[in-house]
Structures are given as structure tokens and as C-alpha cells.
Hints:
CATH topology: Immunoglobulin-like
Distance between the termini: 81 Å
Largest sheet: 6 strands, antiparallel
Radius of gyration: 34 Å
Number of helices: 1
Oligomer: single chain
Number of domains: 1
Number of strands: 9
Low-confidence stretches: none
Strand content: 25-35%
Helix content: 10-25%
CATH architecture: Sandwich
Mean pLDDT: 89
Amino acid sequence: MSRKLAVPLALAAAFAMRDASAAFPTQQFQAKAVVAGNCTVSESGILDFGNYDPLTVNASAAQAGSGASLSLLCTRGSHPHVAMDNGANGGRQLFTGTGGANQQLTYDIVMPSGNGASATATATSWGSTVATKYDVGVTTVAPTVATVVEIFGTIAGGQDVIPGTYTDTVTATVDF
């Protein structure tokens, strides 16, 4: 072997040994993401009781209401419950005018029999305590698929009121 070739080979071998024996520091780390339960809610429609007739039809019979619903989009695995307050007028009162004498209709909001458009009204009052919140169930669908919760109500018969349009504003609260 020529001397010219031996020196570069020796240098290459020395560098290779140095690189192979060099200890490069390493460190492990964790990657992390937190997915919090979350829901969004939107409403559709009006809880419509239709025409209330205190003289004949509703002299003793209740008047049912329907037509409103909530659409919930929730993180899969969330367990939403829906509470209903007593309305802006307080005590679940529909007012016309100032809500004075003979200007109030007492009503109730009742829970649906289940989720979806096929649900029917139950006789269970829907409120805001743990015992009276509606249990939507654990979300098992993608958060792009809405869970629809129908809203039903009833006005007791035999209420002595004057003609007019009676309204209230109710707040639904979703916890999950």
C-alpha cells in the first residue's frame, strides 16, 4: 500500500471510531392533549299552546303545547342534562299586558319521553333541580350529529283570563 493512501485511511478510521464511540445525549418527553366535555345548544320553534278557550274547551281541560326543540351538539362521551327555569315572568306565568289581574296563564313545561322527533310529552314537570332536569343520556354520536330534545308544555284548564296574546321567555341550561 502506498504511503499516500495509508495516511487518509488512518485518518478516516480515527474519525469513524470517534463518531461510533461518541455518546449523543437523548431525552424522552411526553405529548399530551386534553379533550374537555363540551356542548353547544340551539333552539328551534316556539312552545305554542295554540288557542286557549276558558269559556268552553278549556273550562276544565288542559291545553297541550308543543313545537319547540333544542339541538345539542356534544363531545362524544359527554352526559348532558337540560334544566328549564321558571321563565322571565316567574312561576311559569304567561302574561299579556302587565300581567295584572286576569292577565296571567299558569303553564308547565313537561319532559319528553326520549330524544328525537318521535318523543311525546310525559306528565313529569321539567325544572332546574337535580331531580327535575332532563337526562339526555351519554353522547354516543360524533359531535357533528345533533341530539334533538323536544319541548312540551301544558296550560291547566279553568283559568279566568281576558283575550290577548300571552308570552313568557324560558331559559334552558345544559350541563355536561
